[in-house]
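Running this now, will post back.
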Amino acid sequence: MSALLLSRCHLWVLSRVSTLILLDGHPEAMAIIRPSADGEGEALAGLRRALDAETRFMLAEPGERGNELPDQSFRFVADEDGRLVGVIDVLALRWRRARGRGAVVLGVRASAQGQGVGRGLLDAVIAEARRRGMWRLELSVMRHNRVALRLYESCGFEAEGLRRASVCVDGEFFDEVYMGLVLDRAVPTQRG
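Update: finished.
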């Protein structure tokens, strides 16, 4: 075993997947860091409920786990004479604290690009998100996809960060620009 000092904790590597931590000032306090095991579902659910009650930094509110709100996700498609040429999904979380935030995923067939299909789909989901009382839409786009970046910016999305080596396509890593659009800053009402 090798001993390391890691920020106010003593750390010993027990194996490739387990670590023993002795907390400074608390010689009786030890924690073994290990992969979660099958059959720990109830214990994990209890831990998550306890964390929700102890802090405001968790996504779920106290008592919300197991009582998630109905799914608010939605989708629009672009139909060209009975042939689907584009799709846009808004994936919403089911927790009250993030209920009004939706992740946007957009795709348009090459034959329909440059004809306003992507813009039409984005306009539709932005309007629908506002109608549903959502306060934010977000997405990520590969940094070298300049056409998509310009489209999103023209719809009001702003770059909020860069995810380096975020996706791997055909063995090559690409950065993604993380973008967001704040729709409304009003405090949402509690709706199901």
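DSSP finds three helices and ten strands in the chain. More later if anyone needs it.
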